[in-house]
């Protein structure tokens, strides 16, 4: 299953979070793969406190345990992490997919 991972952190914690994240992704556990990772250069949504960094990743995980294994260490270092399940849809043919799931 694919997830959008939203990571927010105070810039003062960025070095600690980066170290924890580097350690996790240097040898990720079985069943999880980082497909893409982006650091936002601006505030992607309103309401964030000043001096907040935001990273958005696309992760593929086979189980909750695998997802937790890559989420927990950066969270302990000071990151707030939200994993949102997503469904991949074809660029063309979205109406067909919508009709299929409507029933």
Tell me what the structure shows:
The protein has 103 residues and is α+β, with helices and mostly antiparallel strands. Helix 1 packs antiparallel against helix 2. It is built from 3 helices and 4 strands. It has helices at residues 14-26, 64-76, 94-102; strands spanning 2-10, 32-39, 52-61, 80-86. 15% of the residues are buried. The two termini are 22 Å apart.
Task: Tell me the span between the first and last alpha carbons.
Answer: 22 Å
Major beta sheet, strand line-up: 2-3-1-4
N-to-C order of helices and strands = EHEEHEH
Shape: globular
Largest sheet: 4 strands, antiparallel
Mean pLDDT: 92
Q: β content, as a range? A: 25-35%
**Computed structural class:** alpha+beta
Radius of gyration: 16 Å
Helix content: 25-40%
Number of helices: 3
- Low-pLDDT stretches are none
DSSP strand tally: 4
Features of this protein?
single chain; 103 residues; alpha+beta; 3 helices; globular
Summarize the structure.
The protein has helices at 14-26, 64-76, 94-102; strands at residues 2-10, 32-39, 52-61, 80-86.
Indicate the topology.
Elements: E1 2-10, H1 14-26, E2 32-39, E3 52-61, H2 64-76, E4 80-86, H3 94-102
Antiparallel strand pairs: 1-3, 1-4, 2-3
Helix pairs in contact: 1-2
